[in-house]
Amino acid sequence: MTLLGILFILLTVLESAARSVLGLFAIAPDTGFYTGMGGLVLAHNLLYLVGAAVLALLILLPREEPSLPEYPGRTLPMLLAATGLVLCVGSFVSFFGDLYDFTAGGDTHFGRVVAGPFAIIAAVAMFYLGLRALHGEYRMNIWGASMPALWMAVQAVGRFMEYKTIASISDQTLEVVTLCVGALFWLAHARVVSPQGGLPARKAKFWALLFSLFSVSLCVGQAVATLSGRQISVQMPLISIAGFLLMGVYAALFAGELKKE
Q1: Of 82, 161, 149, 154, nearest in space to 116 by CA
Q2: Which parts pass through the membrane (predicted)?
Q3: Domain residue spans in the chain?
């Protein structure tokens, strides 16, 4: 691993640690926004900026265009199948729970109900792609492989509609941004694993690492806040946290499989 790669991983770990502390001590329970601890918030944002700069160097410096092996081993397919399975369970539970709450006149926003079927379809697509890869077929039709990207985009719109206020520093903002970056990653992923794609793998590597940084840091902070019993206005269920964490790890390993020819 290169020095820049080690630095990027270190920045991800530090940023996740900073978000965990903010999740424990600086999130206002009634709004979900960060209050106080301005120094740590500033450090958190600087870590993002430095991480993005290191990531740009990490991607742009190599002259050779990387490529994905025809069959990248078993770890990546197993992780993709596990991610799809976790998201299948989570999306079914979440959709029917949101649908029941919405029809009963609860607080669930209509956007969450609309996004539910897309979550189920995308989770099934991930699970199916993982199973195919385990049987030696990692390539997939670009439309089927693009379903996770469509789900991410729909979820991002739904979350944005749900939030009445988007602050410059908040879990709401980070979740929406993570979903948008995730949509771009899964679209790039579909173009790499599909014979009809043709996207330069370096661009896919950029979106994979960026999504990994965002999703891992989001999930670590949310998991710490959830397990500690913090009641905040934006709180992902543990199964959703596990799904996004698996996706982040998968994205990082996917980027690592893009080898130079």
Answers
A1: 154
A2: 42-63, 75-97, 109-130, 142-161, 173-194, 206-225, 237-256
A3: 3-260
The C-alpha atoms of residue 33 and residue 36 are separated, in whole angstroms, by 10
* Cα 65 versus chain centre, distance: 25
Cα dist from 13 to 6, 18, 113, 151, 225, whole Å: 11, 9, 34, 27, 17
| pLDDT tens, residue by residue, 177-187 | 788 888 888 88
Cβ proximity of 170 and 33 under 8 Å: yes
Q: What letters, b where the CB count within 10 A reaches 16 and e where it falls short, cover 223-240?
A: bbbbeeeeebebbbeeeb
d(CA 84, CA 175): 20
The predicted-structure confidence for 13-56, as pLDDT tens digits, reads as follows 676 666 667 666 666 655 556 666 666 666 666 666 666 666 66
> Are the beta carbons of 48 and 59 closer than 8 angstroms?
no
- Residue pair 83/58 in contact (Cβ under 8 Å)? The answer is no
Q: How confident is the model at residue 167 (pLDDT cuts 50, 70, 90)?
A: very low
Say how many Å lie between the first and final Cα of the chain, rounded: 17
pLDDT of residue 105: 75
Amino acid type, 83: T
Q: Which amino acid is at 169?
A: I
Q: Single out the residue of 185, 118, 114, 110 nearest to residue 150, CA to CA.
A: 118
State both tokens at 105. 């006149």
**Where does the chain show beta strands of DSSP type E?**
66-67, 259-260
